[in-house]
Amino acid sequence: MAKLVVENFSAFKELEGKQLPDGDWMTVSQEMINDFAKATGDFQWIHVDVEKATKHSPFKKPVAHGFMSISLISKMLEDLIQVKSAQMGVNYGLNKVRFPNPVLVDSRLRLVGSILNIENYGDTGLKITWNCTVEIEGQSKPACAAEFLSLMFE
After folding, report:
1. Are strands 81-83 and 4-6 parallel, antiparallel or unpaired?
2. Residues of the chain under the 50 pLDDT cut
3. What is the pTM of this model?
4. Residue 34 · residue 53 · CB < 8 Å
5. Dihedral, CA atoms, 103, 109, 111, 112, nearest 10 degrees?
6. Burial class of residue 60 in the structure, from the number of CB atoms within 10 Å of its CB (0-12 exposed, 13-18 middle, 19+ buried)
7. What topology does CATH give the domain 9-27+64-153?
8. Where would I find the beta strands (DSSP E) of 99-143?
9. Which percentage of the chain shows pLDDT scores above 70?
10. What are phi and psi for residue 125, nearest 5 degrees?
C-alpha cells in the first residue's frame, strides 16, 4: 500500500467523509506483547505466559492486550497518511471503543478506516475524528473498532 500524501490542511480537509486506503498488514509478535506488558505493568498470564496460555487458555496461545490494539492505531495512521505541512500531531482521545475479537500472538492486523470529521482547533490546528477498524487477517470480526481523535498542527 502506498502512503496517502497530501500537501497541506486544505487538501487534507477534502478527505473528510472519505474512506482511507487499507493499511499494510503487521504481525503481532510475542515480543511486542511482552513489551506492552512491561510498559503498562499488565502481566496477566493470558498475555505473557506462553506455556500456561497454551495449556489453559481457550485460545491455546497468548492473546495481546486489548489496549495494545488501540495503541497501534497511531502508528497505523502514521504509516497510512501524511500531511506534508503538519508540524506535529498528538492523540486527543477516543469516543467509542470496542474489542470484538481477541488478537492471538502472531496474528496479522491492518487498519481500515475513514475520516469522519475535521474541524479547526485553535489558530493552527485541526481536530480529526477517525473511524478506525483494526482487522485481523482471516477473521470476520475485528480486533478493535474505535472513533479515534487526534490533533494536527501546521
Report:
1. parallel
2. none
3. 0.93
4. no
5. -90
6. exposed
7. Thiol Ester Dehydrase; Chain A (3.10.129)
8. 108-121, 125-136
9. 99
10. -120, 170
